[in-house]
Amino acid sequence: MEDKMMFYRMLREFLLDYLITQRNSSSKTVRAYKQSLNQFRIYLRDEKSIPFDKVDFDYFSKEQIYGFLVYLRDNKKCSVATLNLRLAAIKSFLRYCSGEDISCTAVYLSVSGIHKFKGEKKPCVEYLKPEQLKLIYSVPVSQIKMGRRDIFIMIFLYETGARIEEFLSLKLRDIMRTGKTSQIRIYGKGRKVRYIPLLKETVLHLDAYLCEFHPSSGDDDYLFYTVHKDIHTQMSSGNIDHLLKKYASIASVSDDTFPKELHAHMFRHSIAMAMYKKGVPLSYIKDFLGHASFDTVAIYAYADGETIADALRKVDHELVSQTKKWKTHEKELLAFCGLE
User: Fold this and answer.
1) Residue 227: enclosing H or E segment and its boundaries?
2) Alpha-carbon distances of 8 from 91, 155, 157, rounded to whole Å
3) Full-prediction pTM beyond 0.70?
4) Rounded to an integer, what distance in angstroms lies between the CA atom of residue 232 and that of residue 223?
5) Cβ(185)–Cβ(193) under 8 Å?
6) Is 202 helix (H, G, I), strand (E, B) or coil?
7) Is 98 exposed, middle or buried, given 0-12, 13-18 or 19+ CB atoms closer than 10 A?
8) Per-residue pLDDT tens for 168-178?
9) Which of 151, 128, 243, 164 lies closest to 205 in space, CA to CA?
């Protein structure tokens, strides 16, 4: 219980002592910091079904704070200035806690990596919906060899989430198999390596492709290639771009919303959005895509407002009803922490 109370004690000391007596902050600053921390508390309660008496430093993760800021921006329509104020208040609180107890240092350092928001422009990401993916997979003629290759190229672009340069650099030696497990090794920016597990259905497509296009190839052969003078050479991004636009043009006849300017990166966006809508944490998506910064994957948190509504509808009614039991205790805690 002592460890649990440490969070509430530090919050109280930060708001009622540190800001006022040590930093000599103005009443306006203290009020703004209280509002910021209180809004985060309300976000956890209303959007995550986490009552205040269950909150501790575990809920101050980089992902959670980023989700809170994105929520303020997209749902509450807060300005960039407000977002940065809320972020500054949370960072200041965690910096204080880090100075008081070394066990809080990791939490502070993680959140301190969140950059300030810039400008008012909202990011927009183009991606294919599940029905559009099914449509584009059905366009190539599967009865001919090149049609089967093109179907697999699109499936593999989606399943690996690879950048086009990473995708075209894949060689047979990058297919890693251990027992029943298969994964693909991808060399990203700065030659950083990540391993992408392949689902059973994807492995079936891969094996069929290898049987037809690599019956006797060596490990150093490119997974996707073009043939010049009977030699396998690396396929160019222009080849991929040409075939995708050709199939997109055909798909748009059946679906007038289908993006005619289909490009390889759109498959990367599509798998990321599918993961986000399934509830996969942004931290996992960041690692899957090979991004170094949380800022880059924040576009997926913005891009689909219906995801938030779906998540709220799925909240367990039992958990929601339990908040009534915590009402009195929460009120006492709020008073103790200076957030009443």
Assistant:
1) strand 225-228
2) 16, 50, 47
3) no
4) 10
5) yes
6) helix
7) middle
8) 999 999 999 99
9) 151
